[in-house]
Fold these 4 entries.
Entry 1:
Amino acid sequence: MTLRKTSIAAAAAVVLALTATACGGGDSGSDDGITIGVKVDQPGLGLKTPDGEYVGFDVDVATYVAKELGYKESDITWKEAPSADRENLIANGDVDLIAATYSITPERKERVSFAGPYMLAHQDLLVRKDYTDVKKQSDLDDSSLKLCSVTGSTSAANVQKDFAPKADLQEYGTYSQCLTGLQNENVDALTTDDSILAGYAAQKEHQGKFKLLGLNLSDEPYGIGLKKGDTELQKKVNKAIEKMVDDGSWKKFADKHFGPADYDYGKAPEITEGS
């Protein structure tokens, strides 16, 4: 009886060992993969191409961070992260990280944690090339002005609270929808971060049709969103961001995606989260 029990225990130990090996018992966790939320309709930042490839500055940043966490590029599952859904995607465990023009704000930090920031953008307006009704910030607070932004974005909140509470704000699901409205003259201006606007203006089909007003209405520090209170992951992501800046990869990614738009992306900001 004792011998039989010993044999069963030994067999169980072998099964457990094999299971651990199959599940990737190493520290990298690469066998399990990682899911990262990104935008899919923002040229220069996060765009899903017709052939299913994900490209853009945020995508390159996220790929670099994932590799520093021990994941190969093939381990990454990309998931669309609309502005209004980002906190829920993290809180529900649908994604591990989000790199999607995700501005760090006190309100968002109540539900999620951030690493970074890894970029500092500024809210601006994109208008048609021949549009002249708005030249400075004080021109914005006009009930006849039709502005478009995305539901759940800090840009939309800024318009309502600070810049133009009297303006007619149209909130769409995506910036691409806003751009279509701008092209069709259903709205006068698209407002969001200058980095996003530059990406749209730089597309071949849009070159020469639009202009940024250069108003610098706000500071928008982009962070990488993660589960609330996960300080261990936060530290690892911050370390990856620091390395990305130090080894020149950050500038290489920025030049690659923002250079064609002649957009002054500035320097990488100092990391403030988790410090």
Entry 2:
Amino acid sequence: MNIQFESADKINGLMTITIEQADYQEQVDKKLKEYRKKAQIPGFRPGMVPMGLIKKQYGTAIKVDEVNRVLGEKLYEYIRENKIQMLGEPLPNEGQKPQDLEGDGPFEFKFDIAVAPEMKAELSGKDKVDFYSIVADDKLIDEQVQMFASQAGEFVEAQEWSGNDTLKGDLRQLDADGNTLEGGIEVEGAMVMPSYVKGEDEKKKFDGAKPGDIIIFNPKKAYPDNDAEVAALLKKQKEEVKDLESDFSFQVTEIRHFQPAAVDEKLFERVFGEECKTEADFRQRIADGLKAQLAGNSDFKFLQDIRQYMDKKVGEVEFPEALLKRVMINNNKDKGEEYVEKNFKASIDELKWHLIKEQLVAQTGIKVEDADLKLIAKDAIRQQFAQYGMSNVPDDMLEQYADEQLKKRENVENFVERAIDVKLTQALKQVVKLNVKEVTLDEFQKMMRGE
């Protein structure tokens, strides 16, 4: 076997692999003998089929498989041993000549290899990068208090409609004279939220509504161009209300008002447990929780700023664009060249950052262990529970959910990338000089939106 690798410009590589008969024949003969032992061909006892017949039926297919196996093994072995930083996968060279695999060879295969450009990406204490520390101010803590109060709230009966109250009552279709239409649509216990009524004239009819009041309104005017809302209200199919023009009477039987929970010891214990007794302690715990959440936002922004900083520091880098476009087309055969052209620049930007990040990981010496993946998985699950107002989930439950998530390969790959980002962020905060700037969450969010 002979392998040659050429890369005159250091980014476009051409690998030529020549496979001789000696490289594959021993394994081919071995597999033919195995086939002969198992072959069941009419007229011959098992194991007694003439080798010539076995070769005729299976020889070429076995040889092709073996040549491809040897080719793949040696190609990647050469790349690994010679430390070629390949981008994407090898592609058959456009000048590759057809090979007659029914013959004995030698067989010559040519591959185009996209090679990562040489660059130097490192940081030191001489590099100064902004770090935005988000302050949990009273406004943010107040918002969190109200959120917890709302999550623990309940619906209570009210005597007059206001705000986002829900009205419950009986709907009856009316005729042209304003009387109940015989055989018309009737719905008992219908639910109406006037605040969601789109027609302003219809919405005003519910102002000051009380239990027992009868309100005359038109559903189609209340929800213009939205037959789905009308159908849901009247418990009909969309097709049944398409041409509906009638007014309806709505007799209010109940007003349901959402009442947030009182900010008292009962709420404190519900959110943080029995040891939380006072409002001051409650607010402090919220502040502590926000500090951890906001630190994650600060770190996310810091890594973004590191990326921008390194992009400028490394400068322009030449990539084997023509070859990488071929790789991208090969990986997106169902999307075509237009998709590649549209997304190529963003793909190159991501590739450049990936190569920079690899060098920063090597510089800082960080490694991702199983324990890191478990922490990342648990944190992701903790955040999911927090979205539903569950902020005090037992650790053993988080462990159980994390173990399940880590059984799925696609999840593990995502957790590895997140773990690398987390560990690299912490490591680089110790390497560069931080230009710390305190901001409120509102200021931080405006900055992230580019305002």
Entry 3:
Amino acid sequence: MSRRARIRVLAVTLFTALLGALLPVAGAHAQARTVQGGRLDWGVKSSFQSYITGPIAKGSYSLTGGAATVGASQFRFHSATGSYDGSTGAFASSFSGGVHFVGHKQSDGSHELDMTISRPTVRISGGGGTLYVDVVSKAKGTGAVTSSRQVPFATLALGGIDMKGDENTTNTVTLNNLPATLTSAGAKSFAGYYTAGTALDPVSLSADVAPKKAAPSPTKPAEPKAKKEKEDAAGKLRDGAVDWGVRRTFREYVTGDIAQGEWKLGAGAQDGGALFRFPEGAGTYDKKKQALDGEFAGSVRFTGKHGLDLSLAHVSVTVADGKGTLRADVTSGKKTTKDTPLVTFTAKSLAAKDGLVRVDEAPSELTAAGAKAFGGMYRAGAAMDPVSVAVALDADAVLPALPDLGNSPSASASPEAAVAAEPVADGPGSGLSGGAVAGIAGGVVLLVAAAALVVVRMRKRAPADG
């Protein structure tokens, strides 16, 4: 290589190194942040729901994994997990829960139409989005059952929404009414009932984003506990909670087109999407008799048109001889009936494990008093939502977590116009402020001048080639 060529290579190398030191490396400063809670609302396809429950299919749907209904035709999936990168707009989040559709009951008790959709996941990058789901379905005609994980079920139209956001201030990613279109893979998983390109119900989601992780600071080792509080010998409850959704169809009636109402929680009650949690359990547990007597905090009030005004408060649960009863103070209008036995359920075993006594999703039946409390809307013996009970006997026992619906959960089934994470003001794709761009441009000019100066100086020192 000639001396002049070597000088050129050296100059280019120096220029590149200096330019690289000044310009930020794409994504080097970015840190994908964790999605830690939220919900996704989607009706799959409202006409499909109508077909399932209509006079032809004569079927139904049931919810799994803590999924809930919102309004008249949407399903709510909960506990979002994933990641969001505000610098690029890349977003990926999975949600828990599922819905099981059945229809066309056959003589052997099975159903010709049998499909479960669960664990929806939304992935967005490069201006496009896809909805993935787990699907178990029975093929139309053949009856062959297939189970597929994370099928790219639908494409999502973002409509020009800029997913980029300020990494320091964007704490929630909210997307409303994204149009969804069935993919070819989705059509196959849909058991052949719809073709690729079919419009599905729009998708709305809200996902909480954790702040950037701060650099870890040195911490002192935790001091050992002088004395660990063990299970109370007398069986006194340390804490506890009852989870009960009353009845899915009742909640749908309240928020639906007829009652056009709502519910409000009070006294510490919590909304778990498909259920209400009544916390702060107090009472006793008899290990020998496998008996429980607990009282819980919280209230829920249902209001709506046509005189709907029903409140449940001071919930209590008793279990003896394998049978449980859930009671509450019931207020209908201005009349209150205290300690009303609303539902009964089976609790075969009340053995403690890890400091907890639990009854998980026990099917419940409405009592005669409960039927009266609901104004005759349901008959005695009608199936109500399952009852879950967890009481802590040990101070260190941890109660089961509620589904995570994220911040500001809403029972509205009609989200407003599409809103994305806070947009970057500098225009699509830049990710840099105007001042930063100007500064970099000025720096590049200086670098070019410096590199040229180096070349000139080296040329002065070098003899002519050849």
Entry 4:
Amino acid sequence: MKQLIESMEKTLFGQSQNIKLLIAALLAGGHVLLEGVPGLGKTKMARTLAELIQGQYRRIQFTPDMMPSDITGNVVFNMKENDFQMVKGPIFCHLLLADEINRTGPKTQAALLEAMEERQTTIHGETYRLADPFFVVATQNPVEYEGTYPLPEAQLDRFMFKLLLDYPSADSEKMILQRHIPFSNEQVKAIESVCTLEQIREKRKELAQVVVEDSIVEYITAIIRKTRELPQIQLGASPRAGIAVMMASKAWALLDGRSYVTPDDVKLISRPALRHRIILSPQAELEGATRDQIIQEALASIPVPR
């Protein structure tokens, strides 16, 4: 896992924490929503991860005229065989990039709900199991809202993390430019895989051995319940959010080489795991409060277990 993180960091500069969170979500069996302006490497991040783990990668460019069958597949009549035939859609892969997911309508967005939660999809009454692992990385642009359809809460709650990609630092941006100078030592090289899908499955099994003490469970419960009590929050986090925080904390501990979860793991995971699951009150929004700030306030108000 350390080699996987390092390989991604060599390709994507200035995104170390987001890379580690992305891999943590993969190990924990979650999905990730990437939000950032164009050109920050959202698509490259997903494609690089798929290549490094030898996973089957598919990319769907979401558009307003897309239908659910364009994602899941459909049953078509084969005139040569004189029979109906199942044509699988791009959802049958290991890593699915849902590019600009908010550019398609709710009906098409809903085609992903069953797949993301139950790892299966239903086509004309027949249920088909999806690949193991099945990992969805969705992207959206936070600036351009014309012609978009905001993701409903039910859809957002299926994502383990919402990761915010920001502009790289000056040093990171310089390294990005150097990699694109022709004939230089920093020229882009072909990506070689560093682990297999079987190794990812084995790592997932190791999550069961990561210890979460009762004090940590109570800490996570207190955080989730606090989001429902703060006056700045109109809609708090669901029980599914608590499960996401706990599983992601276990994955983060595993990536750090530990067999136990600490309160610091929970604190770090809470922002990306909760920022898309809460709705601020109109008053809080008028005052310019952000979701990350409110989550930080909630964390600060809860005693940390020793």
